[in-house]
Amino acid sequence: MKLVVFLLVILTFVVLALAIGLWTLARQVGILFERISPMGALVNDSGPEVGQRTPEFSLPSLTGGQAVIGPKSLRSTLVFFLSPTCPICKKLLPILDSVRKSEGQWLDVILASDGEDGQHKRFIENARLSSYPYVVSAELGLAYRVARLPYAVLFDEHGIIRAKGLINSREQFDSLFNAFEMKVGSIQAYLDDRAVAQY
To answer: Per the database entry, which stretches of residues form a coiled coil (predicted)?
Structure first.
């Protein structure tokens, strides 16, 4: 009988110790999450700034027709800069397709790159991109000062740039749309302003 009571006491202490350990671990995870909060698209300071009007272009698309970059009645535009040799760009294509399907009521997606047309035509065929406007223009990349890929610029129906940045993940893609909806320059700027306001 004494042995059973002794074992119950020990088990009670073990359960309490585990509960305290779990609570401490959960608290540390919460603190860690606050310290490394999700970052949005990585915004560079070059090129047209958020809030400025986009440079306007009308460019021939390798998939047919003209791709208009500028104000459009009731339509916002996402210009996604990519390269056939960029592995991250290829990884993001299914995400881009999902974005276009879910946001298609108000958003046009244009793919942009530079280089030789032949390489891009093979890429369009292999990656099944024939339903996208696909432009090859060094001038377009220079206008936005695109230095690294993949890069995206999101502007509204008036041609005003609402979000832009280097994109490496679904979260960074989503951050462009979050910044657009929240009417902030970027999620980074929003998080920095909140951090300053808290201290």
So the answer is: none
